[in-house]
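C-alpha cells for Luciferase-like domain-containing protein. Go.
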Amino acid sequence: MNPPGLRVAVSEEDDMGDYGRPLEFGYFLVPNTGDPLLETARLADRLGLDLIGIQDHPYQRGYVDTWTLLSMVAAVTERVRVFPDVASLPLRQPAVLAKAAASLDVLSGGRAELGLGAGAFWEAIGAFGGPRRTPGEAMGALEEAVEIIRQVWSGGRGLRFDGEHYTLSGANAGPVPAHDIGIWLGVKGPRGLALAGRAADGWVPSSSWATPEVLAESHARIDEAAAAAGRDPAAIRRIYNVNGAITDGESRGFLHGPPDQWVEELTDLAVGHGMDAFVLWPEGDQHKQLERFATEVVPAVRDQVRHEREG
C-alpha cells in the first residue's frame, strides 16, 4: 500500500488484521496553563473531531487540573467527547473518580469517557501525598478500581467492596451516567493487557511507548484474555495516541511527513494492525497541526479504510 520510498509503519509479519470497528479521531490537549486551551478545544469541536484527550499529571506545576479542564471543555463544546488520557489513579480515589466521570457525562449529555492508568512518576505522586506502589501493587489497585467504578456507576445503594487497596462500606451511588461510559486503560505488560481484555472497554496506548512493532503482541494478549472471559475481542476499543508532525517536506520517519504519508500509515494501523481511534499529539504549531489533521488527513483515512474494507 505504501508508495516507493515511504517508510512502512509496521512489518508484514506483525499484521493483526482489522477488528472492523468504526474509526474515530481526536486531539491530545496538553493542559499547559499559558496555552489557549478552550480555544483549541472549540477548534477541535468545529473541525468535527470525535475526541479530546487530556493527560493527568496533578504534580506538574505548569498544568491546570485535568478534571477542571475536562469540565470546561465540555461546557464550551457541542459534540466532541472528552476523556482523561489517562487519569492518574493513585491521586484519584476510584469511587470519587467514578462520581466525577458520571457527573460530567450527565452534564455534557453523554460526552464523557474514562481513560485510566495505574500511575507513573512515583516520586512526584508521593510528593503530592499519594501512595508509592510497586508495579504489582499498582496493577492490583487498578483492577480493584475498575470494579469499584462499575459498582458506583450502577447507582446502587449500600455498595460494598473489600479490597487490598480500596473499599466501599455501604456507599450510596449516583448519578448514573447518561450513557455507557467506556473505561479505557493506558496499560502495558502482560498483566495490564490481560486486565484490559478481561475487564475494560478499551486500550489507550501512545505511539511513543507502544510502537507499531509491539502492537501485534499486545493485541494478542488482550484478545486471549477477552476470549477467556467470554468476551468478543472486537468489542474492545483500540485508541492510539499518535505523536508526530504533518509537514510539507520529505518523510523524516514514522508519523513525521506529508499528509499522504499520514494517510497511508494510519490506514495501515487501522486495517492491518487493529487500531480504531487516533488521537493526535502534534509537534509544532498546535492549531496548524490540528487543522491539517482534521482537513487533510482524517477524511482521506476514512475514505481509504472504507475502500480497503469494501475491497
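The chain has one domain: 12-310.
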